[in-house]
Amino acid sequence: MAERTILLVDDDDVFVEAVSAVLEGRYRVRRAANGTEGLRMIAEERPDLVILDVMMDHLSEGFDVARKLRNDPATADLPIIMLTGVDQVYNLRMEVDESWVPCDRYLEKPVAPGELLEQVSEVLGE
Amino acid sequence: MAEPEVRYLFAPELYGRLVWFGRLRWLAVAGLAIASVAGPAVDVPHVWPALFVVALFVAGYNTFFTMVLRHRFREGHPYEDLQACAIRQIVLDLAALTVTAHFTGGLQSPVLIFFVFHMAIGTIMLPTRVMYLLAAGTSLMVLAVYLAEEHGVVAFHPLDPSFGMCGRMCHVNMAFFVVALLGIVYLTDSVTSRFKQRNIELWRTTEELRERTGELQRTLRQMEIVEERKSHYMRISAHQLRSPLATIRTSLQVLTEGYVDPGSERGKRLLAGAVERVDGLLAIVNDLLELAKMREGRARAPWAPNVNVNQLLADLFDALEPHAEERGVGLHPEFEGVAILDRGIPPDLVYAFENLIENGIKYSRSGGEVTVRLRVEGDHVKVEVVDRGIGIPEEFLDEVLHEFVRAPNARKHAAQGTGLGLAIAREAVEAHGGTLTLRSREGEGTTATVELPLHAKPHAASGELPVSG
């Protein structure tokens, strides 16, 4: 099976470095530092999975990106794992429609490497 | 005694008494009507038609005043109007009484006692001054009628036809009548003035209580806001601390669980990143401590007299010059006049200006310059810190003055920053009774303006928690 590609969208460079280190053994990892860059990179080359941080330049930037991906037929089925702080999950979920979850998984930071790998593997259907 | 207070105090009371007085007057009307009917029975027929006319007259004006009271004064009683209404009623009563007295024996009339009765009631309701005037007026009126009777200008109407004019006895009666009128005003006043005084005191106490209760409610509301803000603030603080901690934890876990060799290039990068995040955390904690110190300590903070703002800024320039040079940014002071604050907390002011100037340096591009303009304008000093740096996006202009808010371009330009500096600076300036405002255009630079009163009143500079935002 060809190596799967994961796009990591997060503005915390140290966190991106750490997560990349975990994923790079098994996957090809690309990185984007904000939502706009992330969308551009997805348009350029569709990854197999997107890992999105919720809070970047704006409070719910990750959600905005996820919503755009879901609303675009070309990317509607693209798997998304969302990384959030505890407060954000609670607050932002309430803010958007509670029933509408624009991603496949929520993961709370801090993320344990093993847990992340497991979730990625599950979402990718491995 | 302060008149306006008495007015508000007695208006509703006066209204109540006038209503009650109006009801009593119907008794007088009934009395006069009965007397006019019963008169012939006791064999003094020629007098009674006059009493019937008086009865009609009293019934007429009593109806009028009852309507006035009911319709005009029911809601909100302007005291002067009520008082004028009361005086008119009493004057008419006294006139009706004088006529009644004339037809029932002049100075021998049994109704003279009702003059005394009116004086007593009047003194309870109206200012004593007015009542002395009315007593004097009544005395003159009764005296005039008596003299007219005595000199045959008008007829004398004794109750018993066998009675004649009282002669010298009438002079004594007249004298006693005047003394009785003035005396009853005096006595009633001395008894009621104590109650009036107490009433006023009670009213004042009630007012004071009402005011205090209002104050308490306001304070309570303010405390609630502060409490809300505190917990909001705690949540943000916790979150701000949590994010870097989460990154540190994941980074270290990646190393300890063997995903990356700590000795490798990547391992070292991760460790360095963790250290960087720890530094960021320390900076936040330090700023939070500074903020807490500023908030808690202000009440007992070392307020110094005669704080020279020029000197304070000049010292700051010396301290910041090397840092500015290092970043290739020029510092330019432009002072117009000397600003000396009556009182101030020098360390807090230093912190505020240091923050603003440091921001200027931090967000300037290399080769840029930061100008600090000080100008004394009337009773306040205006200090502007002007840079030609990256600026603040318009939608963040108000936001960045709050804790933990950093504009995206600021985060991009300088990763280091707690988002607390401006909040602390604002708080320090506001504690001195001043204001901190920002003007900016993204990409063109920022002007931070601090305005401080030279003679801040102590209360303006007391340590209340800010409740704005």
Structural notes for this entry:
The complex is a heterodimer of chains A (126) and B (469). Chain A has helices at 13-23, 35-44, 61-71, 86-95, 113-123; strands at 5-9, 28-32, 49-53, 80-84, 105-108. By secondary structure, chain A is of the alpha/beta class. In chain A, strand 4 (80-84), helix 4 and strand 5 (105-108) form a beta-alpha-beta unit. The radius of gyration of chain A is 13 Å and the shape is globular. Chain B is α+β, with helices and mostly antiparallel strands. Chain B folds into 2 domains: 3-216, no CATH class; 302-461, Heat Shock Protein 90 (2-Layer Sandwich). Chain B has helices at 3-38, 48-71, 79-103, 112-125, 128-150, 168-256, 265-297, 309-326, 346-362, 408-413, 421-431; strands at 304-308, 330-336, 340-344, 369-377, 380-387, 435-441, 445-453. Chain B has a 5-stranded mixed beta sheet. In chain B, strand 6 and strand 7 form a beta hairpin. In chain B, helix 2 runs antiparallel to helix 3 and helix 5 runs antiparallel to helix 6.
Oligomer: heterodimer
Tally of DSSP helical segments of chain A = 5
Spell out the helices and strands of chain B N to C: HHHHHHHEHEEHEEHHEE
| Biggest interface and residues each | A-B, 22 and 24 residues
Q: Tell the overall outline of chain B.
A: rod-shaped
What percent strand of chain A? 15-25%
- Helical residues, percent of chain A: 40-55%
Within the CATH hierarchy, at the fold level, what is the topology of chain A?
A: Rossmann fold
